[in-house]
Amino acid sequence: LLAAEPQAPDVNLLAGEIALAQQLAEQSIPFFAKSVQGDPAFLPARASYARALIQAGRPAEALPHATAAL
After folding, report:
1. Which of 8, 25, 40, 46 satisfies CB 3.0 to 4.6 Å to 65 for a cystine?
2. CA distances (Å), 67 to each of 47, 48, 60, in order?
């Protein structure tokens, strides 16, 4: 899916969730970033992006995404 639609927010969200489920927070961040960039109003992506940033030890970067997802 990612090869067919590399800019699709929902596909990038799924790729990020897979990486995060495998304890690969740093690797998941670019997928979530691309998802949020493609659709800033996509709240599930904002929440997952915040979660990944927190798990990667970057809570200050996570705050705007966590706030937006509320």
Report:
1. 46
2. 9, 12, 12
